[in-house]
Design a protein that fits this description.
This protein is α+β, with helices and mostly antiparallel strands. Among the domains are: 86 residues, Trypsin-like serine proteases (Thrombin, subunit H), CATH 2.40.10; 86 residues, Beta Barrel (Thrombin, subunit H); 99 residues, Pdz3 Domain, CATH 2.30.42. 33% of the residues lie in helices and 30% in strands. It has eleven helices and 20 strands. A hairpin with a 5-residue loop joins β4 and β5. α2 packs across α4. The longest helix has 44 residues. About 9% of the residues have low confidence. Keywords: Apoptosis, Hydrolase, Membrane, Mitochondrion, Protease, Serine protease, Transit peptide, Transmembrane, Transmembrane helix, Zymogen. It is found in: Mitochondrion intermembrane space; Mitochondrion membrane. InterPro entries: PDZ (IPR001478), PDZ_sf (IPR036034), Peptidase_S1_PA (IPR009003), Peptidase_S1C (IPR001940).
């Protein structure tokens, strides 16, 4: 009767060899021995013989002696090495196949998104499209105050702003407060998009609308297209270009927060204008630059920033009316459009409304006892206020003994002849400063 071991096919022993290197060596060695020494005997009888030999030899010290033993040891070593090599080869092959399978699974698990050929970039970069067609018409304006020398640099004090070209023959639109400090000993410099610089001449100025024009001796200039501010909507995307901190052609963007913010609401009571409110960043130096819609049309002139996220622009429809009157005036009378002399001290102010005052008092105990006042948020270098010592952050509580309830109260005092006596609060201290307003023609 054949042993059940003899029925096990060779392929089964091969599979066992792949499972474990130690088991592989043992199985292969046994099979080789059976093939060599068993002859026609069954594998089972051979195993019995081997077991008897082991029992006999154990009493004398288990081991192999003589030439047969050496042959058997050599064969065992050879088969062991062959079996170990075979097992290691198959183990390496299995590992390699496993890694390749893992790589293939990763590729299939995380497929690369299909390429859109740059369509998304072209589709959503609408702000870049606006800048591309408008930036060349935006200019940097610098006013050199030659009679006022900076203490540290020993150079003339400069003020700066932005503007944009509205006609090919060199006419530039900007804010009046950018150039209003123009005096006989001041110089207006205009730097174009390509870096070239020209001396500018102030042609028209209207302090009530805060608009002015500057002309340079240059033709064939790129022109900003003027849009319509009457049909803009809250939530509409807008782009602002200007020169904050003298950094020319700086781009910011945002939305229209309000389309008709009245001047009285933001503490500018000497003007009757509805401003465009936006959250696009407008900082010092942005004034006079364009606020544009996504068609690349100027819908406003950047005018001022109250705080982060709250800035205002003059509607372009008001600017177009100003340009029309200025052109008519030059043709008929050959004189510039200027108002009667006005007095100014050179500050931009903000009325301390109850809401704004509450916020100040909540964040700083220095303002707890303040009931009214006007916040100074910008001082023009070289102006009367600058020379008198006013600094941004001062709160004017009284002027010539009268309480300052809003910015209009201070404007009325400024228009009076003589020197002003301002009572201010600065970092918890009450100070009195005298300011002599100057006439602006």
């Amino acid at each position: 009767m054949a042993s059940p071991w003899s029925r096990i096919p060779w392929t089964r022993w091969t599979s066992l060899a792949k499972a474990s290197s130690s088991r592989c060596v043992s199985r292969l060695a046994t099979l080789v021995f059976a093939e060599r020494y068993a002859g026609t005997r069954t594998f089972h009888s051979y195993q019995q013989q081997q077991q008897q030999q082991r029992q006999q030899q154990c009493g004398q010290g288990f081991g192999f002696e003589g030439g047969g033993a050496r042959k058997l040891l050599t064969c065992t070593a050879f088969v062991s090495a062959a079996g170990l090599g075979y097992a290691l080869y198959n183990w390496r092959d299995d590992v390699r196949q496993g890694i390749e399978g893992l790589n293939r699974s990763v590729v299939h698990a995380l497929p690369l998104p299909p390429s859109d050929g740059g369509q998304n970039r072209d589709k959503y970069n609408f702000i870049a499209d606006v800048v591309e067609i408008t930036a060349s018409a935006v200019v940097y304006i610098e006013i050199w105050h030659n009679n006022t020398i900076d203490f540290f640099t020993k150079k003339p004090v400069t003020t700066n702003g932005s503007g944009f070209i509205v006609s090919q023959d060199g006419l530039i639109l900007t804010n009046a407060h950018v150039v209003e400090n123009n005096k006989p000993n001041t110089t207006v410099k205009v730097r174009l998009y390509d870096g070239s610089t020209y001396t500018g001449i102030i042609e028209d100025i209207d302090l009530k609308t805060d608009l002015a024009t500057v002309r340079i001796n240059k033709t064939n200039l790129p022109v900003m297209k003027l849009g319509c501010s009457a049909n803009i909507r809250p939530g509409e995307f807008v782009v602002a270009i200007g020169s904050p901190l003298t950094l020319s052609n700086t781009i910011t963007s945002g939305i229209v927060s309000s389309v008709n913010r009245q001047s009285q609401e933001i503490g500018i009571n000497n003007r009757r204008m509805g401003y465009i409110q936006t959250d696009a960043a407008i900082n010092s130096g942005n004034s006079g630059g364009p606020l544009m819609n996504l068609n690349g049309e100027a819908i406003g002139i950047n005018a001022m920033k109250v705080t982060a996220g709250i800035s205002f622009a003059i509607p372009i429809d008001d600017a177009k009316e100003f340009l029309k009157k200025a052109e008519l005036n030059r043709k008929n009378k050959n004189v510039t459009l200027r108002e009667a002399p006005r007095r100014y001290i050179g500050i931009t102010m903000y009325t301390l409304t109850p809401e704004f005052l509450h916020g100040l008092q909540h964040n700083n105990s220095e303002y707890v006892n303040i009931q009214h006042g006007v916040l100074v948020w910008k001082v023009i270098p070289g102006s009367p206020a600058f020379c008198a010592g006013l600094v941004p952050g001062d709160i004017v509580t009284h002027a010539n003994g009268e309480p300052m309830l809003d910015s209009n109260s201070l404007y009325k005092i400024i228009e009076q002849p003589g020197t002003m006596k301002l009572q201010i609060l600065r970092k918890g201290q009450v100070l009195v400063i005298q300011v002599k307003p100057e006439n602006i023609y």
